[in-house]
Amino acid sequence: MKNWLIGLLLIVLAGAADYYVTIYRPSTEVPPPPPLPITIVEQTPPEPEAIPDESAPEPFELEPELEIVDEVHALPPLAESDDLVLASLSGLTGEASVTRFLVKDNVVSRFVASVDALTSRQVPGHIMVVRALEGDFVASANEEPDIVIRNAEGDPIPQYVLNPANYKRYEPQVEMFEALDTQELIGLYRNFDSLSQQAYSQLGYANDDFDARLIEVIDSLLSTPEISEPLQLIKPEAYYLYADPDLEALSAGQKILLRMGPANAQRVKEKLREIRAALTTEG
To answer: Per-residue pLDDT tens for 188-226?
Structure first.
């Protein structure tokens, strides 16, 4: 899997999990969605290792970079890649972060599907690769709104203001994201791209390139408008919506950036620009 991609969009995906739980989840309990279907693709087993010729001269030691690149030829099948992915991510972000933020099954397929969904209305709960943010979503009732918003029957819709206390819930992930070394992320990206490309093909994009889709998603996130004033929400039923119809029309990923607050969103955007520049100027 493109290990660096989880580091790249971990903040946004964590927000997606939080957004699904606090914005779109009904107040009544519903059965959990079915697990993400995974298609197991048979791969040709590797050729047996040749018996070394003891009379041959001792081979020279490869540079560390070449040893890492060679590992791409020994990747497990997509459906069996979870252990390798989680272990590799632990080396990049620390085992504590992996345990705290990520699910443990179908990691590659969940991640690719979640990234692809960031430009849609919402990221469905059953494909999420990250756990919901810690703490509770907080919205304060707006008893005296500037504009009364009414439903189809003419009744006033309850209005709220997004409490800035929510912004602190994103800070641990934002700090971790900023600390990641961009060149290390790009290196891991290139080592594990075949599994994420396979997962992307299984979504129905057999003729499309996940690299291009990733750039498209990053560009969408970077185009998120900057809103300084407190976000106004409405609650017509059991879930919250943005009171401003233009904000409500934004993609799931863009709404997540808004929800993490202006300062956190700016920090994430700066890192995304850095990574995008490095990715598009390779080779």
So the answer is: 777 778 999 999 999 999 999 999 999 999 999 999 999
Q: Which amino acid is at 118?
A: L
Residue 250 belongs to a domain = no
Q: Let me know if residue 202 belongs to a domain.
A: yes
Q: Is residue 190 assigned to a domain?
A: yes
Residues of the domain holding 7: 3-48+60-135+166-225+259-280
DSSP secondary structure of 31-100: PPPPPPP-PPPP-PPPPPPPPP-TTSPPPPPPPHHHHHHHGGGGPPPGGG-HHHHHHHHHHHH-HHHHHH
Rg (CA), the chain: 22
Residue 240 belongs to a domain: no
pLDDT of residue 283: 54
DSSP string, 126-177: GG-SBPPPSS---EEE-SS-SS--B-TTSPBPPEEEE-GGGGGGGHHHHHHH
pTM of the model: 0.73
